[in-house]
What does this fold into?
Amino acid sequence: MSWLVTGGAGFIGSNFVRLALAQTDEAVVVVDKLTYAGNLQSLRDLADHPGFHFVQADIADRSALDGIFAAHDPRQVINFAAESHVDRSIDGPVEFVNTNVLGTLQLLEASRAHVAALAPSEQQAFRYLQISTDEVYGSLGDEGLFSEETAFAPNSVYSASKAGADHLVRAYHETFGLPTLLTHCSNNYGPYQFPEKLIPLTLLNAIEGKALPIYGDGGNVRDWLYVEDHCSALLRVLSAAAPGSHYNVGGRAEHTNLEIVDRLCAALEEALPIASNPAFEGREIDRYEALKTFVEDRPGHDRRYAIDDRRLREELGWSPATDLDSGLAKTVEWYLAHREWCEAVQSGSYRRERLGLQT
It folds into this structure.
């Protein structure tokens, strides 16, 4: 028996697979469609691990899922598979519904059929964990936090598709008794994040001396969570949470996008002083912050997210191990040391251009 990790070649998924193999004795089967944001380069160091197996498949393909379940007999299913970039959901909404809603539905159906054929003791041990986002809750004002009881109010196609999947997960537990778990996390950052998101985009542009785009006035607030801390929370949920449980996972590190860009620039200056960066040779720029450029805001851009994660901390005893400054420093060092990964995953049509502008 094994753990089945869908979307395991993506950002959070690949970090989770690495941590699961390091901290458990479980075999891990990664299922990934390998879209632009899922890349085998993110799992290259695991290729020879005896507990690692990879299958290229789409979670919306039920026949493929049935074959994978039959071959690997999973006792845990952890679903990271999703289209996840808000800007892309503006440009192409249909793919988000196909993967995030219909794909989750097929994965739930395959899991339900699989569990029905297990022995009673194995049925009790089985878990289906859905990884979701705080964006399903909508936008906060200057005060307040999202709790597990906050009503869903998604404002983007991405968050609406994730909310739809979350409702299905809850329904499959309540209607069919499938032993599901649900988590909602705040903004993740760290190694292997595709360079369309704020932190890796800012970092790589700064290294190359390019403009650092900041949406609107830069005042949108997010809670930031180092990806390895998120993955440790998921391992804790899998090991200790009761079926039907729902937990928020946060970093308690609220900052505006502008503040994050400034902190990244400072961390990059420590690791790669601009005076020694060949991208700035002959240019009259003496600080990375000078590259900041304010651009047209994203349509429907939520102003603030903030997570109340007390349930997870109090019931399961989890807390993050990485503060923002040390997490950003580790992230900067990783991207500087893995430029070949950055080039490999951007080898397709996307070259860090602006997405999601309505025309």
User: Anything to note?
Assistant: The first strand starts at residue 2 and ends at 6.
